[in-house]
Design brief:
It contains four helices and no strands. Its main location: membrane.
Amino acid sequence: METSKKPNTRGILDWFDPRGRNVGGWGFIINRLSAIGLTVYLYLHLYMLGKLAQGPEAFDAFIETAKQPAIMFGEMLVIIAGLYHGFNGLRIALNSFGIAVPAQRQLLYGVVGITLIGTVVFGVRMLTTH
């Protein structure tokens, strides 16, 4: 019996294609996107730390920059990505070890819920201390 399989012509773009995916597939796409975002943030963070080594004036300039709305929005994105990626990684690890496999959808909803609650808590603290 011969099966015709569509050749993979898009490569890595298929990793991010949401068509025909179930909830777990969506969770995995978001996990990949959060990993990319956190990797970009790591390089930006290291760049800023290098700037801070230039002295007190550079530190003061950094603090002023960090108070800008666009930077604060970026901080919120980092918190969202960090919380989601971390807790979803635990969900994926449980699945890999065969633990709670039938409850993967509920676990993903829990991951999203924890991420939303953590983001709100962080956002309130960030906006009330700046």
